Structure formats: structure tokens, C-alpha cells
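Example 430, ligand iron/sulfur cluster.
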Amino acid sequence: MAQVYNWQLGREMSYPYEERHPQWQFAFVFNTNRCIACQTCTMACKSTWTFSRGQESMWWNNVETKPYGGYPRHWDAKLLAMLEAVNPGGQSWNASTKEPATQPYGVFDGKTIFEAADKRIGPEGPQRVVGYLPSEADWAAPNVHEDSATGGKWKPGQFNGSTQLPEHRVWFFYLARICNHCTYPGCLGACPRQAIYKRPEDGIVLIDQSRCRGYRKCVEGCPYKKVMYRGNTHTSEKCVGCYPRIEGSDPELCPDGAPIETRCMSVCVGKIRLQGLVKIDEDGKWAADATNPLYYLIRERQVALPLYPQFGTEPNGYYIPPRWVPRGYLYQMFGPGVDHAIEQYSCPDRELLAVLQLFRAQRQILFRFEIEKGPKVAEVPVRLPSGEEQVQELFNDTVIGFNKFGKEVVRVTIDEPVKERPRERHANSI
Ligand code: SF4
Ligand code: SF4
């Protein structure tokens, strides 16, 4: 196996192929604090890409209720248990050696799905990637355990302890998921046919249907279980990142060639989603650009974190963690950056608050933002999850978003303007 650098782990790791990087990388931030599980995203994807025969159980976008829900059922708990069995007690982080550019969350001391593979000998010998094939029953019902809460007496280290916010005694949260278009995809690493590739222009991971023979090694190797097998074509399929929209090549939607967000992102009712493209340097590092909204949230402020970074695929989906959930649960899901992320999100400063207004403000992909300062309009008392009280100063700043061509496409103020409709033209019918 080759050695590649994984910045989310803060170290090199082994991977079946040499390091190679796209010029831009498809990435997104989901704010779990705002998702209402309306499933509009799920249906937008389903009605665009997976409505045909043989795709009945295929949900490229799904929204599951944590901690019990999952599609396929218990996908994350099963893989975490497999990794723990290979490396008992060793799946830990050393968060004391942080460095913003190369190891922002510290160093992961445990074993990734690639590093643990030689310890798992299957019928065909050692695996390339630790994984498993879900059963048909696991795929059959995507919403089992929807809205199932948990709670009880808090014991440190126990995931089902009471909630972090004093107002609530039980907790659950919604986790929206799509393919993470990983930097080191498990699906790609596991495919014996080399049918999976990462596009050099935007990092979207695709399956070449003419090369796929339906061995399902990718289904086994994707730790997020975002590749699905289609029985009537005998091939695997996965999220295609709505690539015509990302390319700006959809003649109806992008007449001027400006990239627009995927279907699931642009319909999001809860405004939890912000999608974009980040520039990647030749050596694989993210090109520093604190005016790109995604770079700002993920790298500059570290308010959004990767999902299960310890799997080792360097996923490009990032989550603002839910404030009310016991920290033990969140640490195993998002790594050691959780406290820092929640602290900032619970009482955002003026700049961060402005950037958070860009979520779902415009369907064109925003490559740059600017903030125009406005007057102070309020002081609001805020209680942090730690119980500490703070006063948040609110300013009516304006955040402006620009598309790929540097054209202004959106302008949002912090203080939402009130528009009164003229009484004579809009009679109240009640
Ligand atoms: S559309 Fe948005 S708010 Fe609704 S379930 Fe999907 S991610 Fe959550
Ligand atoms: S999430 Fe899974 S399917 Fe998507 S790129 Fe990563 S390993 Fe492949």
C-alpha cells in the first residue's frame, strides 16, 4: 500500500493507491442543529436519480435519527465494532498536538479501515479495506427508529446519558447523509476492477458503469454505506454529485455556466445545507482562502467537522454538531474538535453569524463572501451548553455572496427586514 497524507487524522496513512488530487473539491457543510427531518432532500434526490425499476431501496440521500436510526441499519455501529475488534482500546486521538494547516484536530492514534485491513482475513485472503456487506433487510427500511429518543442518568463516557442542555432530559438528532466524495474513497480502494474514479476537475467520485461487474466490493468498502447494488442491472450505483449542476453545464438552470448546488442542497427546507467547491493545491492541501464560505467554516473557524474522520477516507462532508447531545457520543462521531465547534456555534461572533446566513440563501455555488458592517441592533443573553451565561451583541451586518465569475448573487442582512403588505391589496380572508 502507498503512504498518503490525511490532514483530518494529522498524519500519513496507508491507502491502496498513490496520492493524487483534484483541482477543486466538492464539499458541503450540514448544520445538524437545524435539520427537521422533513425529507425534502431525500425526495428531491429520489425523484431525480433513483426512481427506476431496481432502485426501489436506493436512497442516495437519507436522513436518519441518531443514536438508533441508520440506513442501512446500524451501519456505523457495526463498522466501529469491527475496528475496535481489530484494535481493542486503541482507537483514540492525541488532541494535544494541534496545528491548523496539517493537523487541526490533533493526531489519530488508532487504525483506519485501510490500516486494519490486513488483520481481517476473509475467504479470499486479507481484505484491502475493512468493511461488511449489509443484508437485504438492512437496506429495506430507511427510517426505522425515526424520532426515537434516549436519555437516562448521565455517566461520563456513556452515550445514552442525559442531554447536554439543561432544558431537555432526553435527546436524539437528525443526521442527513449523502456520499462524502472522499479524498481517499473506501469504495475506490476496494474495487478490484478499477471501475471507480475521482474526477480531476471537482473531486466527485463516480462509478464507470461499463467497467463495473457488480462484485459489490465497493458496497463492502464504503464505510458510510453510500454505494448501493442494483439487482436488475447487476452493477453498483452511487450519488453522482448532480455533476451537470456542479459543472454549470445544465442549459436550463445555468445559462451563463455558473455552477449551482445539487438537488438535495437547493431544496433544503431547514436551510441546514451549504455546498461549495474548495481549491486544492498540487500537494493536496486546501488552498488558504478565508473568503470562501466553506474554507472559512471548516478550516478557518473549525465550526464544521468531518463525519467519523477515524475511518480514514478524508470525507468532504462536514457537520456543525448538535448542541444538546452528550459529548461522549459526539466525540466518537466527529472527533476531538467537538467542544471548540459547539462553543463557537452557541454564541457566534459577528463574522461567523454573518457567514451562517449564507446557508440556502442562493442556489448558485458561492465561491467568495464579503461582509458590510452595520449598526448594533441588540444585546441578547445566551446560555452556553456549559451553563455559562454570555451576552451576544448583534449587528445588522450584510453578507454578500459571489458566484464563480465574481458576480454578486446574494445579499442577506442579519436583521431580517419586515415587509408590511398594503391592506387594500391583500385583504385578510379570515
Ligand atoms: S431538506 Fe434539509 S431540513 Fe429537510 S430533512 Fe433534508 S437536510 Fe433536513
Ligand atoms: S462516502 Fe463512500 S461511496 Fe462516497 S466516496 Fe466515500 S467511500 Fe466512496
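Summary: Residues 35-41, 63, 176, 268-270, 272-273 surround iron/sulfur cluster (ligand 1) (CB under 6 Å).
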